Amino acid sequence: MSEQQAAPAGGPKVKKFMFVNRKAPYGTIYALESLEVVLITATFDQDVSLVFIDDGVYELVKGQQTKGIGIKNFSPSYRALDGYDVEKLYVDQASLTQRGLTEKDLLVPVEVLDAQKMGQLMAQQDVILSF
Amino acid sequence: MKFGLLVSEGPYTHQASDSAYQFVVAALAKGHEIQRVFFYHDGVNNATRLTEPPQDDRHVVNRWSALAADHKVDLVVCVAAALRRGIKDEVLAPGFRISGLGQLVDSGIKADRLITFGD
């Protein structure tokens, strides 16, 4: 029962990992456990990017107050991502617009992409994990 | 081809675990390699030996254990997700082992395809 932290032996093999976040931060555990995978993947020196789409855009919204639901507000962790060299964060334009949000409402710098650009980016990945 | 699998839902409520199992059986029959099956989120509930489904239903957990015994399929349960949900070594069904999320990343690196079975 050990947490494997180091890159596996046998030479460096860098793959493009994309994490697609589709769910609201609370209500289900997917967003939180997705973030846990992201942080571990970063320690493997892989090419990591994150996508926020549908209700997943709510994960990045500023000023989350979770006291009323008794669940830890884990959104500050997104600000720690660049400390792990995870700097590629992409947000779906339509998902923002549909929810009345703009880039200014988000707590980290992101690149906002339309669906076509997002699709092109996804096509370039080796591994896509969707949460 | 070398496949890695991620199972992210528990047994019975969702079909994810059934579909993953059927995929593994079909892939092995075609001569492919299953590099690992990683259980995350509620998927860790596939690893408890305490389930007792009705006699006329499939036994999801035992089916996985049989795959491990017959084909040496590596069944790995995420430690953090497991501890949250009360899955520990003492309730682990045969063939499963508890390890870190690094095992999922390792699958992504080593397998030709990493396939998610979720909701």
What does this structure look like?
The complex is a heterodimer of chains A (131) and B (119). Chain A is of the alpha/beta class. Chain A has a single domain, classed as DsrEFH-like (Hypothetical Protein Ychn, Chain: A), CATH 3.40.1260.10. Chain A contains 4 helices and 5 strands. Chain A has helices spanning 30-42, 76-79, 93-98, 115-123; strands at 16-21, 47-52, 88-92, 111-113, 127-130. In chain A, strands 4-3-2-1-5 form a 5-stranded parallel beta sheet. Chain A is globular. The two termini of chain A are 25 Å apart. Residues 1-7 of chain A have low confidence and may be disordered. The two termini of chain B are 25 Å apart. Chain B has a 5-stranded parallel beta sheet, with helices on both faces. Chain B has a single domain (2-117), classed as DsrEFH-like (Hypothetical Protein Ychn, Chain: A, 3-Layer(aba) Sandwich). Chain B has helices spanning 16-29, 60-71, 79-84, 102-110; strands at 2-7, 33-39, 75-78, 96-99, 113-117. Chain B has 4 helices and 5 strands; from the N terminus they run E-H-E-H-E-H-E-H-E. Chain A binds chain B through residues 1-5, 8, 13, 15, 17, 29-30, 33, 36-37, 40-41, 43-44, 46, 126-127, 129-131, and chain B through 6, 8, 40-41, 79-81, 89, 98-106, 108-110, 114, 116, 118.
Give a quick set of tags describing it.
heterodimer; A: 131 residues; alpha/beta; Hypothetical Protein Ychn, Chain: A; 5-stranded parallel β-sheet; 4 helices; 5 strands; globular; disordered N terminus; B: 119 residues
Question: Brief description of this entry?
Answer:
With 131 residues, chain A is of the alpha/beta class. Chain A has four helices and five strands; from the N terminus they run βαβαβαβαβ.
